[in-house]
Amino acid sequence: MRDGKVQDITAFILAGGKSSRMGTDKAFLALGSSTLLERSMALAHAVAGEVLIVGNQKKFSRFGRVVEDVFRGRGPLGGIHAALKASRTELNLALAVDLPFLQVDFLQYLILQGRATTALATVPRIAGGWQPLCAMYRREFAIDAENALHQGRNKIDLLFTGAKVLEENELTGLGFKPEMFGNLNTPEEMERARKSK
Length: 197
Prior knowledge:
Elements: E1 6-14, E2 30-31, E3 34-35, H1 36-47, E4 48-54, H2 57-60, E5 65-67, H3 75-86, E6 91-96, H4 104-115, E7 121-126, E8 129-130, E9 134-138, H5 141-150, E10 164-167, H6 168-173, H7 187-196
Parallel strand pairs: 1-4, 1-6, 4-5, 7-10
Antiparallel strand pairs: 2-3, 6-9, 7-8, 7-9
Helix pairs in contact: 3-5
């Protein structure tokens, strides 16, 4: 590890959502001096040797390597599957584009936890809810994801039976606040985030 970056990690930013409640593409909304995509890219580049964007090729190609869903319109599971199929590394960090409160030190901790287990997924669980869009995945998770997608199943948490779970009390005990998993889905949430910056 040099300067916190791990060369054998791929980070992928999930930017293919419809943003229907926001009314416009979240990736390009500004929070402070950066867009949500730029913030996510900066976080990803701080901890990973390679960064991919999962989304529309035309929309995002100027920002870096883009991967499009193989199974279109299937939500986060489809995006995670596409990224893992395209990844050149065993260990992979998933980041939703609309998680602006994440911190580099937490991502470094998440990477260490993912490396220390043979589980195919290392996933935080906050207030009983899985956080699959800020999680570590081994490349083989793509096999389970593809099987589920072929069977018409889109719910990713059904694939977390053998996952390594990072529980909220563990994370808060280490000084990581649950609020960092807050995502932005509506103009009202975006406005509150801007006021808190």
